[in-house]
Design a protein that fits this description.
Number of helices: 14
Helix content: 55-70%
Strand content: 5-15%
Structural class: alpha+beta
Order of helices and strands: HEEEEHHHEHHHHEEHHHHHH
Radius of gyration: 26 Å
Length: 366
């Protein structure tokens, strides 16, 4: 291609290429770009994302360069333009570019008796799509907002009656059959928790890559992997997908909570119901704790618009301890506030969780 034709070329992005919203990662703001066929994803900076967003097949360098200069205060050179298009073409992100080879999957450790994973369905996306079609009427706001309000009221009522609730729960350890029933229900609710993530992702246009069984002896749990929900537009969709499992767990407790509240003191059903409510609430709310790898950690990252919040916080703290002023110079004031606040907050949270766990165990065995 001659220099003149390269300058006049009007490139277009391959249909289906996914672009994420801006994400804070350390001192940089990045966007994720994902190939629709191979699934390969990589990070680009603000300038590269700006150029990618202009590739609609109607603009050449003479059209792009002024817009780039207005945004970034410097003109885009022909050499930079050609290098940029060459990189996108090599990755198969331009319309008409050869399809690149799919990246080799990361090697998985072999399954053993002690640990492993195994897919349970051939097409996880189709399975969750069928579930979504069946449950779509229940996913409307007119249904979910009252459920959320009912869960909040139940939590308030249980907190008000927490003394009686914990007294009944303490009796559960003396009823092994009832305890096994509660444990079975909680195991099933974890399965539904994972499927809730997949159905919520389908609701907002996401894709489910795998539904499978993951075991770490002696526990075995279902897992549902959502492939591209980081590329969903808007924060609300990502927050709903990440929080859908905990929300469903709390909704499942609603009938049992009402039942327990209506039972008279001394009723035999109160003990298993109380244990189910306490352990189920702990299970659901613990998932909202903003520590990795819990759902609450993902929700906090989405709310703040960050990527790899915990690892980047550790890197930031290491730079501060080493006194690397030059390395810290690239961090914006917002990044410094976020990483400092998360470091302090997560340390305090770990201490509070440890204290609450000790207190809970002492109440049950006391």
């Amino acid at each position: 291609m001659t220099a003149t034709s390269a300058r006049a070329h009007r490139p277009a992005l391959r249909p289906g290429v996914l672009l994420s919203p801006p994400l804070l990662r350390g001192p940089r703001t990045v966007h994720l770009v994902k190939h629709p066929g191979t699934g390969a994803a990589f990070e680009v900076g603000i300038k590269e994302h700006f150029l990618i967003s202009l590739l609609d097949g109607t603009r050449n360098l003479d059209d792009v360069a002024p817009a780039y200069a207005d945004r970034f205060g410097r003109r885009l050179g022909e050499e930079q333009w050609n290098r940029f298009l060459g990189l996108l073409g090599a990755r198969g992100l331009l319309s008409g570019a050869p399809e690149p080879a799919a990246p080799a999957p990361a090697p998985k450790p072999p399954n053993t008796f002690w640990r492993g994973t195994r897919p349970l369905v051939a097409d996880a996306d189709a399975t969750t799509a069928r579930l979504h079609r069946a449950l779509r009427p229940l996913l409307r706001r007119v249904v979910q907002l009252p459920l959320l309000a009912a869960v909040s009221l139940l939590m308030g009522a249980l907190a008000w009656r927490s003394g009686a609730l914990l007294d009944d729960t303490a009796e559960l350890v003396r009823q092994p059959v009832a305890l096994m029933g509660v444990a079975l229900f909680l195991w099933m609710s974890i399965t539904l928790h994972e499927l809730a993530h997949g159905v919520a992702a389908q609701h907002y246009g996401g894709r489910v890559a795998e539904i499978g069984l993951r075991w770490r002896f002696p526990a075995a749990l279902l897992h549902c992997t959502v492939d591209n929900y980081l590329f969903l537009p808007g924060r609300r969709a990502k927050l709903v997908v990440a929080g859908a499992g905990a929300h469903l767990n709390m909704v499942l407790l609603l009938p049992f909570g009402i039942w327990w509240l209506l039972l008279p003191t001394g009723a035999p059903e109160r003990v298993p119901l109380a244990g189910l409510l306490v352990l189920g609430t702990v299970q659901a709310l613990s998932n909202l704790v903003p520590l990795p790898p819990l759902d609450g950690y993902r929700m906090l990252g989405h709310a703040l618009g960050t990527a790899h919040l915990a690892p980047e916080t550790r890197i930031y703290l290491a730079l501060r301890r080493s006194g690397g002023a030059e390395a810290l110079a690239g961090y914006s004031a917002r990044a410094r506030r976020i990483y400092t606040a998360y470091a302090i907050g997560s340390a305090v949270l770990v201490l509070l969780v440890a204290a609450a766990t000790c207190a809970f165990v002492l109440v049950l065995i006391g």
